[in-house]
Design goal:
alpha/beta, 8-stranded parallel sheet, 13 helices, globular
């Protein structure tokens, strides 16, 4: 597994990481034994980045990761967590006192004195643009509560604002073949500034697995049911904001362009990881097979199929079928 610099921290993280939203059971039920098996399989495949958040299962994801890593001293894993969604996303809630309380809770959940990396969890634009936000984060670094900080964003404008801040380590943004806007400015700006990019929702909530049809349904407690139209949070977090039926058709076209021995999810993860400026791709996995398959896609970055040809198909499908459907601020 290729390891890449995590901004200016001196750490390295794997080109394919592991997103752990699903371990909080927000994608349907996942037992702790299954969650632990996913973590173990990922580590065995060379994954060195776990991305989580304090609200994934109200801390369940963090706690499972903490117990898993607590049993593996010297593990070499970087845990990137997120904070800021335990209260209403109003600028007045983003205070130094709340930052301290949120990070203290995550430290307890993860069983560590210092958090490796804390990301603001898609806060309002006003928070991203406020000097006080970064003063409070710098204070947490100075106190040893966190080692580094970044920002998870919804829009390209938010990403550019965060990248301009001198102590931001990383920006996390939705980027996949259904969401190409970050290619225009965000990735070049991050690369120039030495800011890491984590590409989240890389498989468009499973649409780019190639397994869904227009008739596929999901459990009631799965956000792909209850947030289909943005009822619970930003619609862009579910299927990358693409209409489900449109996404199914686009995924089928991308899959048809691949060699028989290359799956659509593997090609997608390799394509994202190969884009200049991307540090790590953070797909989720609900079982060991998915974890192993995700990690194995890293080998395709070094060769194995024609990434340039796939890139052309990605742009063709996006320009023809998806560009008009994507909200312009994404």
């Amino acid at each position: 597994m290729q390891q890449r610099a995590l901004g200016r921290t001196g750490r390295s993280v794997s080109a394919i990481g592991l997103g752990t939203w699903q371990l909080g059971a927000d994608w349907g039920a996942v037992t702790e034994d299954d969650a632990t098996a996913v973590l173990a399989a990922s580590v065995d495949e060379g994954v060195t980045l776990f991305d989580t958040a304090d609200v994934y299962g109200d801390g369940r994801s963090e706690s499972i990761i903490g117990r898993f890593l607590g049993a593996r001293p010297g593990h070499g894993i970087t845990v990137a967590t997120k904070m800021g969604r335990r209260l209403a996303q109003e600028p007045e809630n983003y205070t130094p006192e709340n930052f301290r309380a949120w990070t203290d809770r995550s430290r307890a959940n993860l069983g560590v004195d210092t958090l490796d990396l804390v990301q603001m969890h898609c806060p309002p634009t006003a928070v991203i643009e406020d000097d006080a936000t970064y003063d409070a984060l710098d204070a947490l670094v100075a106190d040893g509560a966190i080692a580094a900080y970044g920002v998870s964003v919804e829009t390209t404008a938010q990403a550019l604002a965060a990248i301009a801040r001198p102590n931001v380590t990383n920006v996390q943004i939705i980027f996949n073949p259904f969401r190409l806007k970050p290619l225009d400015e965000v990735l070049p700006a991050a690369e120039a500034a030495g800011v890491a990019i984590f590409a989240r929702v890389p498989l468009a909530s499973g649409l780019l697995s190639g397994r869904y049809t227009a008739a596929t349904t999901f459990a009631a407690d799965d956000h792909r049911t209850y947030n289909r139209h943005g009822e619970a949070f930003d619609r862009g977090e579910t299927f990358s904001g693409v209409d489900f039926e449109t996404g199914v058709a686009a995924a089928a076209e991308l899959a048809a362009a691949l060699p028989d021995d290359v799956s659509l999810p593997a090609a997608t993860l390799a394509w994202i990881a190969s884009r200049p400026g991307v540090t790590s791709v953070i797909p989720g996995a609900r079982n060991v097979r998915q974890a192993e398959s995700n990690a194995a896609a890293a080998a395709l970055v070094e060769g194995g199929f024609d990434l340039a040809a796939f890139d052309r198909v990605v742009h063709d499908v996006y320009d023809r079928d998806l560009r008009a459907a994507i909200h312009p601020h994404w």
